[in-house]
Amino acid sequence: MMGSRSGVDAARAALPPSHRPKAGHDWDTLATALNDRGVLHVAPARERRSNAPTSTGELFERLVTSPEPRLQQAAVLLLLTHPDAADQARAVVERLAEVQRDRAMRRYVAAAAMQRMARTRIDLQIGRRPEIPPGFIDELGLPPLDTEFGRDTLIELARQEEALYGYDAWGTYRALLDLFLAESRRAGWGKPCASAPTEPA
């Protein structure tokens, strides 16, 4: 298990250079929205709440449809931090199409698999959270999530992504899980920011 600050830095460094942040209004808006929901691993250059997502589901949609890879990946950590938003995330997937749908499905499955792989550590660090329900397993041709506590699911998901998109998906997912476990020790992780807009009912 990784140490707090050195662990965070090491996990961030493990992400490929193409997955590091780029400046821009959309980055700042979505990074601010993530911070407002207690997901702290990305930081805006400047806090922006204009045109911000008004729900966790809308934030998930804007993350998975972003052209920025690190924002796409932040959708995984958003679900790990707020698994109670799983129904909203599945609804988002159902209204997307083609590459965006594929990306959103894979981010959802990755979060569900990681949660199962690290269930004991997550429970110890941030308390028991709702389980992310299975979804899109058959559609993607993946092993069930209860096989090897989600590990087989994530390995096959990563193998498919490497073949489809040509990047080290397994290494990236492992780095994301390490990052989540390291940063979940930070004060304020998973807690709404006091200045954040209220989530609609």
Descriptive report:
There is one protein chain. Helix 3 packs antiparallel against helix 4 and helix 6 runs antiparallel to helix 9 (151-165). The model is unreliable at 1-23 (pLDDT under 50). This protein has helices at 4-14, 25-36, 56-64, 69-81, 86-95, 98-117, 119-126, 137-140, 151-165, 169-183. With 201 residues, the protein is mainly alpha-helical.
Map the helices and strands.
Layout: H1 4-14, H2 25-36, H3 56-64, H4 69-81, H5 86-95, H6 98-117, H7 119-126, H8 137-140, H9 151-165, H10 169-183
Helix pairs in contact: 1-10, 3-4, 3-5, 4-6, 5-6, 6-9
Number of domains: 1
Shape: globular
Mean pLDDT: 85
- Assembly level: single chain
Total beta strand runs: 0
Distance between the first and last residues' Cα: 37 Å
**Treating each run of at least 4 consecutive H or I residues as one helix, how many helices?**
10
Q: Structural class, from helix and strand content?
A: mainly alpha
Residue ranges: pLDDT <50 for 5 or more in a row? 1-23
Largest beta-sheet characterization: none
SSE ordering? HHHHHHHHHH
Radius of gyration: 16 Å
Strand content: under 5%
Share of residues in helices = 55-70%
